[in-house]
Amino acid sequence: MAEKISSIACKLGIDEDAILPHGHYIAKVPVKEFEKRIDGPDGKLILVTAMSPTPQGEGKTTTTIGLGDGLSRLGKKTAVCLREPSIGPFFGIKGGGTGCGKSQLFPSEAINLHFTGDMYAVEKSNNLLAAMIDNHLQHGNELNIDPRRIHLKRVIDLNERALREIVIGLGGTKNGIPRKDGFSITPASEIMAILCLSESFSDLGRRLENMVVGFTYDGNPVRPPDVKAVGAMQVLMRDCVNPNLVQTLEGTPAFVHGGPFANIAQGTNSLIATRMALKMADYVITEAGFGTDLGAEKFFHLKCRSAQLKPSSVVIVTTLKALRYHGGFKDDGGLGNLAKHIENIRHFGLEPVVALNMFADDNQGEIDQIIEFCKKIGVNAVVSNHFEDGGNGASLLAEAVLENIALNRSCNFKYLYETDLPVERKVEIVAQKMYGAQGVDFDRNAICDLKLLKQNNLDKLPVCIAKTPLSLSDDSSLRGRPENFRITVNELRISSGAGFIVAICGSIITMPGLPKTPAAARISVLSDGSVGGDMWIS
Fold this sequence. Notes:
Elements: H1 5-11, E1 20-21, E2 27-28, H2 32-35, E3 44-50, H3 60-73, E4 78-82, H4 87-90, E5 99-100, E6 103-106, H5 108-112, H6 118-138, E7 145-150, E8 154-156, E9 166-168, E10 179-181, E11 183-185, H7 190-197, H8 201-210, E12 214-216, E13 221-222, H9 230-236, E14 244-248, E15 253-256, H10 271-280, E16 283-287, H11 292-307, E17 313-318, H12 320-325, H13 334-347, E18 352-357, H14 364-376, E19 380-384, H15 386-393, H16 395-408, H17 423-435, E20 439-442, H18 444-455, E21 463-466, E22 486-495, E23 500-505, E24 524-525, E25 531-532
């Protein structure tokens, strides 16, 4: 039976009168609750990542929740930190983002749908800025903005491929200046990345001011203060800065806040929620999108660097399905892929634990093979059956993580590059160390982008490399552990408000489309008002 949210808050030492309830089971926790504890000690930060996944994912969210419940069952004061799900994937192919089986968040339907309105606040703030830019063009364009070089796209939290490329301002002089535009999905907005890296209300405002939304005809950057949009954007986002508190099915407190994509942005929950949880719990489990080459690398270089966080343990999720997808149980196949992801975590000076996310039809012989393989390379691999058994099924994993925390006390967490290196070198270091690439090629468009970044002194930021999650390379057909490959950067985008440069490799799409038979076609409201349907849930 679910507990009232006031009871969940009490587990974290938050007074019932301090929370802002959204019904019986959801609440916002004001930022001032973190500020009151800012001088207190931090708990241990545990990252859940994965090997290269299949298109459906390998259950990082479910494992994160199961591990949280497993640690709670061991008597540890624990909190989970996760991203807010996007409605687009929920109605598309991937389903919701609240876990599955006996390792789920509650109330999952509300979290997967409208939740507390954070997604809409980000969407409205982004689209208000877009409207004010086009309004400036309409009324004389005093800033000399080049309509061809406005990079900000409008956003909507749905999968809608027809909106990727559009033309606006048609219909005569009263309807604006005609120009090419487009939509991204809301989690791909830089404003979502900004929300999730901001440390306070004032830091949010500073980051919004630093955004580059386009360029003038003279090549100078255009920012939100130029069109006087920042104050109104902050007002729209005032409430969504406060983290959301829910619970797991077993009553472990869970902060679910923010939802940036793991390609175009950092792919992890908000910094405010993570820092708040670390002040309120002894163990905080969070996840980063996709595998170590994307999610974990961005978590370390973007989030941890921004806030000086140091992880105490890293869990790499694997499944027999993923190992088969990447070539089976051979060194240049699935096992080679897993070995590379283990190596990736070691590049940062940490030792990982491998969690084998178990399914009912898994073969014991293959499980034993994975455990033995990991043992040979000095890594503890543990079977976790949290889907079937909740926290009890994750008890061995929880114990392994506690042992891993002790092991990592003597490790020196480090970054792979310094931010003052040239952009080309930063991308090359990540590609060579994390992907195993021989090198990096920059095409003509990327070289032009690079010159513009340097011209405006925007090149001294960390890099966020956007590529396929289905391969260590930038080619999704190269599975396992590919060798003798190079990656190609075809575009560089500036996310100066968030604080990084995005290097686009391959055909990354910021507005997903729906499959032939989307999950939306199988969802309905049952007679009792609950949501029914056959959805795959992560």
